[in-house]
Structure formats: structure tokens, C-alpha cells
């Protein structure tokens, strides 16, 4: 078996920045075990798999250890690669996913992703969130789904930048991942994202996290369009817009790799 594979850096305009993701275009879906094995072999935070169907593509995302219901940076990378490497002709790509229909559109040099906004509920900030992060958050919120993401709000950008998490402690929290955020100094807000329980100690740039961050900070700042930075080691920049119950994320991507997977069977 031979399969094409591509890799791009998402939410950046320069290679080696942003968040790398792979795309494996498929003619049809193989067994899930093979998808997971490919993602584990790639050892990237996300590998996207796409199958062309009427009206667009079915799209799925895998970390090295698990399938996830939504991934923003791998969707952006997949759209970029379908346009640049696979010659998809339309300026909008419709994706059919576990999280419902998603749309990627070309907007000049940027790609705009249209995602559902995610709601949050306040949780007790006195819960043991400070211990694995070494700093106490000012507020805590949880996604409105069992085991969803946790959002921790810290006092300032420097506190978020200086976090040195105990990843075993973070993985023990009953959440798919933890977003740490603060008001920005030269942007509207900053964040970092940790998800060791799905094989990602720290994700460089996390689109799905911004489906929670965008409505949260829109409410705090009274703004619909905001500039965000994810202040990981690689770093990434996003433009975030709240449109009623949808979040529009805009960013650039750059191709890094073209290749072929060879599986002897």
C-alpha cells in the first residue's frame, strides 16, 4: 500500500513556526487502527485524513494516541494542502466532521475557518488546578461537555509564559486538555494549551481552543474581532472573529513536506 502524505506549518507564514500537521488524502476509509498507526508514526500533534465526497471532504484528525473530534490547525493545514498540492479548484472547501460541517475559505493570503463557538461554565477556582501548573489561576471554566477542555485565566501574559507544568499532574485532571490564557500586552489575548492525556504535552498552536477563547474574550473585551497569540516555543498568530454562534479563525500556512507512505502487507 502506498499513500501520499503532505505536511504544513499552520498559523504561521514561515516554515518552522506555527503548528505542524500532516494530511493523508485517501480514496476510501481504511480500518481505524491503520489511521492511528500512521498518526503515531508521524508523531505530530495531529494528522488529518481526508476522503473526497459529494460537496467536499470527510475529515478526521488523530493525535499519536487518539482520535479527536475537532482540530483547527490541522483543518487549516489540510485546506492549504488540498489547494496547493492537490489542486482543489474552489475557493471554499466544505469538510464533514465529527463536530459537524466546517468550511475553509481563501481570503487573500489567509485561510478563514468557520467553526461552532463553544460554551463555557464557571467551575470552582479553589479546585486543585494550581498544583500541576505552579501558579494559581484567577478564574476557571470548563467546556459544556463531559471531559471537555478546561480554561484557566491567569493574571497576565508573563504568568502564562512562565508556566512549567507537571504533565503527569495535568494528565490526571478530568479534561481533554487545559487552556491557559491571559489578556495580551501587544495583542488582545494570549494562550498556551496542554493535553498530555491525548499525547500532546504542549500544542504549539491550537485552533479548537480558540473556539472557546474567542467567545470568552469577546465578552470580556467587548470586541468581535481580535488578534490572538499562542505563546508556545514555536508560537502562532490568529485573527479571531465572533459571529453569533460561530467563530471565524484566520491564519496562514506554509508547506513543509511532500512524500509517500509505503506499507508492506
UniProtKB/TrEMBL annotation:
Coiled coil: none annotated. InterPro entries: Phenazine_PhzF-like. It holds the Pfam family PhzC-PhzF. Gene3D superfamilies: Diaminopimelate Epimerase, Chain A, domain 1. It comes from the Bacteria. Keywords: Isomerase. Belongs to the PhzF family. This is PhzF family phenazine biosynthesis protein.
Amino acid at each position: 500500500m502506498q499513500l501520499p502524505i503532505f505536511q504544513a506549518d499552520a498559523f504561521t507564514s514561515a516554515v518552522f513556526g506555527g503548528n505542524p500537521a500532516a494530511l493523508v488524502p485517501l480514496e476510501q476509509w481504511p480500518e481505524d487502527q491503520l489511521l492511528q498507526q500512521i498518526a503515531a508514526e508521524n508523531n505530530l500533534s495531529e494528522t488529518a485524513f481526508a476522503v473526497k465526497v459529494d460537496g467536499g471532504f470527510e475529515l478526521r484528525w488523530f493525535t499519536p494516541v487518539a482520535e479527536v473530534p475537532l482540530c483547527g490547525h490541522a483543518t487549516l493545514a489540510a485546506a492549504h494542502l488540498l489547494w496547493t498540492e492537490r489542486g482543489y479548484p474552489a475557493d471554499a472547501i466544505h469538510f464533514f466532521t465529527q463536530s459537524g460541517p466546517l468550511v475553509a475559505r481563501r481570503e487573500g493570503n489567509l485561510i478563514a475557518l468557520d467553526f461552532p463557538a463553544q460554551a463555557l461554565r464557571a467551575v470552582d477556582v479553589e479546585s486543585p488546578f494550581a498544583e500541576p501548573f505552579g501558579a494559581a489561576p484567577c478564574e476557571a471554566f470548563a467546556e459544556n461537555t463531559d471531559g471537555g477542555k478546561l480554561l484557566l485565566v491567569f493574571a497576565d501574559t508573563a504568568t502564562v509564559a512562565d508556566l512549567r507544568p507537571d504533565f503527569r499532574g495535568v494528565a490526571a485532571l478530568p479534561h481533554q486538555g487545559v487552556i491557559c490564557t491571559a489578556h495580551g500586552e501587544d495583542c488582545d489575548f494570549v494562550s498556551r494549551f496542554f493535553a498530555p492525556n491525548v499525547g500532546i504535552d504542549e500544542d504549539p498552536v491550537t485552533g479548537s481552543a480558540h473556539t472557546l477563547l474567542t467567545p470568552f474574550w469577546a465578552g470580556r473585551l467587548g470586541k468581535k474581532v481580535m488578534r490572538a497569540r499562542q505563546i508556545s516555543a514555536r508560537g502562532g498568530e490568529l485573527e479571531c472573529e465572533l459571529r453569533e454562534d460561530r467563530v471565524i479563525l484566520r491564519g496562514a500556512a506554509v508547506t513543509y513536506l511532500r512524500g509517500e507512505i509505503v506499507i508492506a502487507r
